[in-house]
Design a protein that fits this description.
The complex is a heterodimer of chains A (77) and B (380).
Chain A lengths: L4 E8 L4 E6 L2 E6 L11 E5 L2 E5 L2 H13 L2 H6 L1
Chain B lengths: L9 H14 L6 E7 H9 L10 E8 L1 H4 L2 H12 L3 E5 L13 H6 L4 E4 L2 H10 L5 E7 L4 H14 L4 E7 L2 H10 L1 H4 L8 E4 L2 H6 L5 H7 L3 E3 L4 H16 L5 E3 L11 H10 E3 L2 E4 L3 E4 L3 E3 L8 H4 L15 H5 L31 H20 L1
Parallel strand pairs in B: 1-2, 1-7, 3-4, 3-5, 5-6, 7-8, 8-9
Antiparallel strand pairs in B: 10-13, 11-12
Helix pairs in contact in B: 1-12, 2-16, 6-7, 7-13
The chains are: A alpha+beta (77), B alpha/beta (380).
Bound molecules: iron/sulfur cluster (SF4).
The site of iron/sulfur cluster (SF4) has 14 residues of chain B, from helix 15.
Chain lengths: 77, 380
């Protein structure tokens, strides 16, 4: 129920709607909640609506923080 | 899938596990409640518990919107459909047990017009296509599903879609977390020990991280807003352990790729335009929780099913023996329930926790059961 999936906006279809690509599958959703989302942006899709846009910079930052972790443990092995 | 696969990477998971093992103090234990069913699901599906040291435990909370809706509200939805309305709802609701072994899916089989929808836009379409029928959207969910309902109500008002109403059951996360922390099990009886919380991912993408500040301070418990992928949960665990070890109780945000302190301002404005707080709402498992749910404001009153239709006050209660209420409070585990896996399975659910894939019982059954069997086989 609370699951939401990251999808890329491929086309704005007028009104508040857009076509997104979910792992290659195209689907029409509503952008009513993320007025400033643009084609190419990744959004979090939940019950047919984009809830928010995903920040590529923050995603990178989180991954590099993760990559720094556990190095001490690894060195000890 | 981008933004999914990278956060399930095995090599990184091993590193994070090593980091957790290194930082967790063997002299103490760490009990963290994940409020959201989405986290419960991820923890089970990816076996995150198996990667944790013995003294780091997950306490599963009440954050599955399907699981917390009390039986009388489902009885009311069935009553609306049996009274002749077309009732639309999300798929997860269809099999949730109502009174007298009934459910929406059984009522549908018996002839009631109940339709499963994916989006509130589908409910609007059904209302447009059936101008001489009453169409009721049975709305459930936390702060993530509320804005889509607000959009639909505003659209119905703009279009003058008078045969469309919403039976509103939207509930609020911060109120429920606070209620758990004030419950006798946590405060007086000490049955549930909670050292910190994983804050909701998608709920927080709407409401932001700021609403948790109050109870982190008030109850002196750390909160880390965590993404729903397994690596997100693990990194958040490191962050929670650090806060505990350093004696801090702050709201931290691991899920920065989506969550900001303010959340989605546009969505919040839509919600406050259409909805207002209910003074009291009953949750399955938690009982009456003050100011924990929303109702439709007067300005949109004509789209409120509770005002348009007269609903009977149902006295429906959970099946005898079902431990969902205690499980939702984190007091019991699904395996403590006598009906678990015998009388009650996902194919024949007795309680709500066995219906949704985010419910604890369903998660135990789908992912835990096989592990137990493997352990048994190994022991033989
Ligand atoms: S196993 Fe079934 S009956 Fe038991 S607590 Fe879970 S949902 Fe209720």
């Amino acid at each position: 129920m609370c699951l939401a999936i990251p999808a890329r906006i491929v086309e704005k279809t007028g009104g508040e709607n857009a076509i997104v690509s979910l792992d290659g599958v195209k689907k029409e959703i509503s952008l009513a909640l993320v007025a400033d989302a643009e084609v190419g942006d990744y959004v979090l899709v939940h019950v047919g609506y984009a809830l928010n846009t995903i920040s590529p910079e923050e995603a990178e930052r989180t991954l590099s923080l993760m990559a720094e972790m556990g190095l001490a443990g690894e060195a000890a092995e | 899938m981008k933004y999914v696969d990278e956060f399930r990477d095995k090599a990184l998971a091993r590193r994070l596990a090593a980091q957790i093992a290194e930082e967790a103090d063997p002299a103490r234990s760490y009990n963290f409640m994940e409020f959201c069913g989405g986290h419960t699901h991820a923890i089970f599906r990816y076996g995150v518990q198996d990667l944790m040291p013995e003294n780091v435990n997950f306490v599963h909370g009440p954050g599955c919107p399907v699981c917390v809706l009390p039986i009388p509200r489902i009885d009311n939805a069935i009553e609306l459909a049996e009274g002749g309305a077309i009732v639309c709802t999300y798929g997860d609701m269809m099999r949730v047990p109502a009174s007298g072994r009934n459910s929406l899916i059984k009522a549908k089989a018996a002839g009631a017009d109940i339709r499963m929808i994916y989006s509130t836009q589908d409910a609007l379409r059904i209302a447009r296509e059936n101008p001489d029928r009453e169409v009721v959207f049975f709305a459930i969910g936390f702060e993530t599903t509320t804005p889509p309902t607000a959009v639909a109500i505003k659209q119905a008002a703009a279009e003058g879609l008078r045969n469309f109403t919403v039976f509103c059951n939207h509930v609020l996360t911060p109120a429920a977390i606070q209620h758990i922390l004030q419950s006798p099990e946590v405060r007086e009886l000490g049955q549930v020990h909670i050292d910190g919380f994983y804050g909701p991912s998608h709920v927080s993408s709407i409401i932001g991280s700021a609403p948790y500040e109050y109870f982190a301070r008030e109850f002196q418990k750390p909160v880390v807003i965590a993404g729903f992928e397994p690596l997100d949960v693990m990194q958040s665990t490191v962050m929670l352990i650090r806060q505990i070890n350093e004696g801090r109780f702050e709201v931290e945000n691991q899920y920065t790729r989506v969550v900001t302190p303010e959340g989605n301002a546009h969505a919040k404005a839509l919600v406050s335009e259409v909805f207002e707080l209910r003074r009291m709402f009953e949750w399955r498992g938690l009982g009456d929780v003050p100011y924990s749910a929303l109702r439709i404001k007067d300005a949109y009153g004509e789209f409120d099913a509770e005002r348009r239709f007269t609903l009977t006050e149902s006295r429906g209660r959970d099946v005898k023996g079902c431990e969902c209420p205690a499980i939702l409070r984190g007091v019991k585990k699904p395996t403590d329930c006598k009906l678990f896996g015998t009388v009650c399975t996902p194919d024949n659910p007795m309680g709500s926790c066995m219906v949704s894939s985010e419910g604890s019982c369903a998660a135990y059954w789908s992912y835990g059961r096989f592990r137990l069997e493997r352990v048994k086989e190994a022991a033989e």
